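Example protein was shown:

_____
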Amino acid sequence: MRPNIAPTATQISRRASRGVWQYAVATARAPRDITSDIKKALKPHIKENHPAITDPVELGELLRASMAYRGGPVMRVALRMAAILFQRPGNLRTMRWEDVDMDKGLWAIPSEDMKRTKVQKINGQAHTVPLPRQAVAFLKALEPLTGGGEYVFPGLRDRKAPMSEAGVNAALHAMGYKGRHCWHGYRATGRTILRQVLKYPTDVIEAQLAHKGQITHGGAYDRATHIEERGEMLQTWADYLDKLAAGADVIEFKRA
């Protein structure tokens, strides 16, 4: 007799169950969505925070470990750029040379590559990321190695494809940061220290994180980019990271 290996109701998330039943109703496979009837029996979706280092001293240690990482120059630059720019991993690992202007110190992420709704992707402008001097220097050092291809950070096995997020997290694990910090965690690192230690305005930080994008009454993507403020902020941030990496005295983060 074949064993019953179907998951129980408590093993299925509420969100997944609702999606299944809504699809069933839409395709005439079920008369209605029954998830409201069994709501209490369904396991709620619990969002977990990505592990991230938010202490300046520990961040300095991470930066030094990244510089000493033996996995190759492309990975070392990726790790440093993640700390400086704190963009979404999917955007950074697919960074294209054609979107980078090193003379102007700007990286324009196409709207269709951003985490936006379909309408926002169509109507939105590119998310422009200022590149501080340190980021430009890293890119110039990497250009002879990867500049002949499409991606700034190509994959190790397939140079025509971007590096994988798993590869960067594997590097962090090899450096001893498994469970302590991940690639996505650089976003929390930048946001926390810039606000709590360097005292930058929340709206400027959120603009750098590309969290501010709402649809305006005119139907266009919000154009309040704070580009000048972000350029100044990121240069200060990159200089601060250099001090942390050098082991300089820093203002420690005061925990609540």
